[in-house]
Amino acid sequence: MADGAKRGEVNKVVLAYSGGLDTSVILRWLQQTYRCEVVTFTADLGQGEELEPARKKAELLGAREIFVDDLREEFVRDFVFPMFRANALYEGAYLLGTSIARPLIAKRQIEIARAVGADAVAHGATGKGNDQVRFELSYYALAPDIRVIAPWREWDLTSRSRLLDYADTHQIPIARDKRGEAPFSVDANLLHVSAEGKALEDPWTEPEEYVYSRTVAPEAAPDAPQYVEIEFLRGDPVAVDGEKLSPAALLARLNEMGGRHGIGRLDLVENRFIGMKSRGVYETPGGTILQAAHRGIESLTLDRGAMHLKDELMPRYAELIYNGFWFSPEREMLQALIDKSQEKVAGRVRLKLYKGAARVVGRQSPNSLYSQAHVTFEEDEVYDQRDAEGFIKLNALRLRLAARRDR
Prior knowledge:
Blueprint lengths: L2 H4 L5 E5 L4 H14 L2 E8 L7 H9 L5 E5 L1 H14 L16 H15 L3 E3 L8 H12 L4 E3 L10 H10 L15 E4 L4 E4 L29 E8 L2 E5 L2 E2 L2 H14 L4 E7 L5 E7 L1 H17 L2 H20 L5 H13 L5 E8 L2 E8 L7 H4 L11 H20 L1
Parallel strand pairs: 1-2, 1-4, 2-3, 4-5
Antiparallel strand pairs: 6-7, 7-12, 8-9, 8-13, 9-10, 11-12, 13-14
């Protein structure tokens, strides 16, 4: 589509804005290409960066309406915790740290678009990755008639050198220490840090230690273990070592503990939704502890049938989140089932943190289904072992009939 055809079609756009090179160029490019007003939105999801510079840069680049929102509590309470009730793992390993952040960013963008009367939203995701899908599926689920602008699918600024040239030409300030090409791309929030691309593209090459920012190497972790107790109520963690904490504060506490002990590193080659494989290096220290603890308390409190059904559904639930379908009816249906299963998931779990591992070493619950009287190796008065004979014979009946037929 020619620039002239684009101009005038958009009056105001809400841009998901980080303040970095890409989104700063996008801000100016939107102003120039679409001749529209650009509203910036920067989300604080616990990425650990000072966000005030993003506000100042947006002002410098002519954004008249600037939103910088602290979404940490909402992120953990309404997105991370519901996902962890499901024990969600994508392809058996990935705790979905980037995937779960995108629907919240999109949700807030749409809320801002409605509040300021914008007719379009924009993001800085490339045309090769999953994030474009996650953002846009969320946009359309929440605002079916919204206009979506994805500059990486439209412009010809296809390299970092071209982005830098554009920034210089259009007086976009780029710090001198940011002009060198970064060795990999980073995404961070309170749940995880991910690194992808460039130095990490060869799946045979082990990541250098400088790739990791949230965890120490397990080899360098303390030689003494640390024990931690996590309390759960209705499937959500509510306290650490007896101290009640808000969702974001609780996850931050576990991040600090896990990072100190080298917990939560993952080097994964995964299948992107759009069809290609990619290699990601992830750090999810608090989430790794939390998932082990949650499974620990479920082991006491969930009925076998409920637990096994959850485990069967989990890969489908995780795939929906990875592929960007958080706001889909099927994810909401699965969430209702998962949340129903968590009504009695309450109690305490004790874990041992040591050299990259978080192991459950104790669990107790007022809703426990564990009966020591039934499982004891000592003499008991509650279980008649003779009952097992009929149980086994009934389960063996079809096997015996088939064996007689085939003999």
